[in-house]
Amino acid sequence: SQQGEEDPQALSIQEGENATMNCSYKTSINNLQWYRQNSGRGLVHLILIRSNEREKHSGRLRVTLDTSKKSSSLLITASRAADTASYFCATDRVQTGANNLFFGTGTRLTVIP
Amino acid sequence: ETGVTQSPTHLIKTRGQQVTLRCSSQSGHNTVSWYQQALGQGPQFIFQYYREEENGRGNFPPRFSGLQFPNYSSELNVNALELDDSALYLCASSWTGSGAEAFFGQGTRLTVV
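ok -> structure tokens follow
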């Protein structure tokens, strides 16, 4: 079973628009990470936010974390057709070994040129 | 390219058979984790190896087993294959410790018929 959930499950936007994806999780975490996956291939690490951080930026990516609500959001600004992919959040949980990542169900993003 | 290589890329096996999947870690990484990703789902944590010892295990039966070698490469073995074992199997290498970025291979697509 999945350890978290992303919503929406699917998102379709026009190139240039912003895309926001949300992630909820259930247990205490050390950190939360966002990954990208193209067409069932390997996962690419995008950004990591630690449990004591509230917001982090990397290029066109902005991630927020609310540990009281056990939720995170990923914002991709000025989207491009090349951003079309599935996006997953993954939690590094306090109770388990370091870097044993637990993934959500993913958001399938389609950016229309 | 992450420097993590997996072999083979595709594999077809018959129910009841055994399979071995291989992963070569990125140079310098001492931790390897394995994940199973069913179609349309997020990756699920199988287990992690650190210094040739299992260092955390997800909710998978004992017929899923692994090895890590002194050069930090790794194998995933699955005995008595079932149809539901059909999935993309992903290997990730990292340094040990929470927050270390995990680098994923491109995966092995296993089909059980």
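The interface with chain B takes residues 1-2, 30-31, 33, 35, 40-45, 48, 50, 88, 90, 92, 96-106 of chain A (CB under 8 Å).
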